[in-house]
Amino acid sequence: MDKDYWNEQFRSRQNKLFSPEEYLVKNIECFRPGSVLDVACGDGRNAIFLSKHGYDVTGIDFANEGLRRLRDFASTQGLRLNTHEINADDTERITTLGQFDNAIFVHFKPSIKTFLAVSNLVRSNGIILMTSFNYRHLLKSPQFPSQLCYGEAEFLNRSSLLDLVEYVSYSDERGFLDGYIFRKQSAP
Ligand SMILES: C[S@@+](CC[C@H](N)C(=O)[O-])C[C@H]1O[C@@H](n2cnc3c(N)ncnc32)[C@H](O)[C@@H]1O
């Protein structure tokens, strides 16, 4: 599932934005006020939701067609968001984005290197929220793209700078998913 695949996916979508991810909607109250970095933001259903809630949102993705749709949806709604065409594996480039109050990964599985690079950009007491399908989903639907599926507890205990607020496995009409919420520790 490379950039061309995702660009084609976004090109074939209708001119309608999907609903924001329920796990994000449910947990927005715990975010630190300010900015959010949306990693692999796609065409922006979550970025636009966050922008409407007053966050200064930066969306990054390697699919320019997704980012183009995001910008179109945003301008139709009078919202201003920052977008950057970046491969999430390019941690050097990510590091140049500056600091953020929060970060999200939704339906995207970062490498541990990217997870840690993004964690480093989040300010003290900021939130990192992640959710995607999990390994149970893969057992049930082996044809589902494994790149999108989190392994069991895959992101636990990866950084001593992150406190775990919540790790949940849940299921809904789409299948089996995991959710993580971390809070960046306060500076010593
Ligand atoms: C399933 S979509 C999720 C999009 C969005 N987060 C959402 O919840 O609607 C996965 C997204 O990951 C992006 N993506 C996949 N691999 C990437 C990479 N290496 N760097 C940046 N974006 C990537 C795709 O372009 C696509 O927009």
From TrEMBL:
One of its GO terms (biological process) is methylation. Residues 16-88 form the Tellurite resistance methyltransferase TehB-like domain. One of its GO terms (molecular function) is 3-demethylubiquinol 3-O-methyltransferase activity. Pfam families: TehB. It comes from the Bacteria. Its EC number is 2.1.1.222, 2.1.1.64. Keywords: Methyltransferase, Transferase. This is Class I SAM-dependent methyltransferase. It comes from Alicyclobacillus fodiniaquatilis. The lineage of its organism: Bacteria, Bacillati, Bacillota, Bacilli, Bacillales.
